[in-house]
């Protein structure tokens, strides 16, 4: 029986495709030499049903379409040069709603020091937005997923779990039928979900610090990102549970502490930077941005968490396209 893409899951399908294409580096961006620097290119596609809760406005949808691409540029330590946008818009879409989408795109691009250079527009049965971002980085400063060494520190920017908690709050509002989130704390969580902040300044500062050995964004969740870094670098990680910076507002929707930890580990959408750091350069990195040390790099390819008792293995769960149901680690963002 022939496998379906849904049976394979996103990562296995990507593995097979990159093998066909002869692509061996699996970074957040593709890399092309350009004199004494690298150009970095990335693309991301978003769909109305899979990626945006019903409460999302047109402006928020446009913002997110740009932000997810800029986050990949940030993960390479690069400076953005511009974006191209391809938009498939259903013919019945209200013109005002479509205009708001592009205003959101433009505001996000300008807010992070770049702009939308052009693109393509077509009719499609589901709102579909595909962005392509271009950036540049000096050859000696580029940050890749490979490069972590045993003894390095495992670090993250920002706090974790808020986007997953925001999604839960949004879905609960939809389930009630009113579609509104009135509590100010829950509104703050849904903003983290709908208005991700690509860590452009932080990514650049970490590159300039000279201490980072590998980096990626954690858009698919902390746990899956650790497995991606492990595969790229041939290393493992020991995570200290007590050091994971869980957003305090997550407790507003989490059932208990274990549920809050699961949101931090396995829900996607935070768009923070996950990186490894030479311990001798932590002061240099910390001067560049706020960071949290959450663990260490191991020589063996094992990913475990220390919760104060026996270590337990982390599972490769998180947000994946092409996967159905929680058993596969995927979820519909709606």
Structural class: alpha+beta
**Order of strands in the sheet with the most strands?**
7-9-6-10-8-11-12
What would you call the shape? globular
Total of helices: 11
Tell me about the largest β-sheet.
7 strands, mixed
Under CATH, the topology of the largest domain can be stated as Phosphoribosyl-aminoimidazole Synthetase, Chain A, domain 2
- What order do the helices and strands follow? HHEEHHEHEEEHHHEHEHEHEEE
Describe this structure in words.
Helices cover 36% and strands 24% of the residues. The protein folds into two domains: 134 residues, PurM-like, N-terminal domain (60s Ribosomal Protein L30, Chain: A); 176 residues, Phosphoribosyl-aminoimidazole Synthetase, Chain A, domain 2, CATH 3.90.650.10. It has 334 residues and is of the alpha+beta class. Helix 4 packs parallel to helix 5 and helix 8 packs antiparallel against helix 11. The chain is globular. The C terminus is likely disordered. It has eleven helices and twelve strands. Helix 5 links the parallel strand 3 and strand 4. The protein has a seven-stranded mixed β-sheet, sandwiched between helices. It has a five-stranded mixed β-sheet with strand order 1-2-5-3-4.
Helix-strand blueprint:
Layout: H1 5-8, H2 10-21, E1 30-34, E2 37-47, H3 48-51, H4 58-75, E3 79-89, H5 95-111, E4 116-123, E5 128-138, E6 153-156, H6 162-176, H7 184-194, H8 200-209, E7 212-217, H9 222-233, E8 236-240, H10 257-266, E9 273-277, H11 282-288, E10 292-298, E11 303-306, E12 312-313
Parallel strand pairs: 3-4, 8-11
Antiparallel strand pairs: 1-2, 2-5, 3-5, 6-9, 6-10, 7-9, 8-10, 11-12
Helix pairs in contact: 4-5, 4-8, 6-7, 8-11
């Amino acid at each position: 029986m022939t496998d379906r893409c849904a049976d394979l899951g996103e990562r296995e399908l990507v593995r097979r495709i990159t093998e066909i294409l002869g692509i061996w580096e699996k970074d957040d961006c593709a890399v092309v030499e350009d004199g004494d620097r690298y150009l970095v290119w990335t693309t991301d596609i978003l769909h109305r049903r899979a990626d945006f809760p019903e409460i999302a406005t047109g402006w928020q949808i446009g913002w997110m379409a740009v932000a997810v691409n800029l986050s990949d540029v940030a993960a390479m330590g690069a400076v953005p040069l511009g974006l191209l946008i391809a938009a498939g818009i259903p013919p019945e879409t209200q013109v005002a709603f479509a205009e708001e989408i592009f205003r959101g795109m433009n505001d996000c691009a300008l807010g992070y020091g770049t702009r939308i250079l052009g693109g393509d527009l077509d009719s499609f049965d589901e709102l579909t937005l595909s962005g392509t971002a271009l950036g540049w980085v000096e050859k000696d400063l580029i940050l890749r997923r490979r490069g972590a060494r045993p003894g390095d520190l495992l670090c993250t920017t920002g706090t974790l779990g808020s986007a997953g908690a925001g999604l839960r709050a949004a879905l609960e509002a939809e389930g009630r039928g009113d579609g509104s989130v009135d509590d100010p704390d829950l509104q703050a969580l849904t903003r983290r979900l709908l208005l991700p902040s690509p860590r452009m300044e932080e990514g650049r500062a970490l590159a300039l610090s000279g201490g980072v050995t590998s980096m990626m964004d954690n858009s698919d969740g902390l746990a899956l990102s650790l497995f991606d870094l492990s595969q790229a670098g041939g290393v493992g990680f020991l995570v200290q549970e007590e050091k994971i910076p869980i957003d305090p507002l997550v407790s507003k929707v989490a059932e208990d502490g274990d549920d809050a930890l699961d949101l931090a580990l396995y829900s996607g959408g935070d768009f923070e930077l996950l990186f490894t750091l030479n311990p001798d350069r932590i002061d240099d990195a910390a001067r560049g941005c706020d960071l949290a040390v959450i663990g260490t790099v191991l020589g063996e390819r094992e990913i475990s968490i220390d919760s104060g008792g026996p270590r337990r293995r982390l599972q490769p769960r998180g947000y994946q396209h092409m996967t159905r149901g929680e058993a596969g680690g995927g979820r519909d963002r709606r």
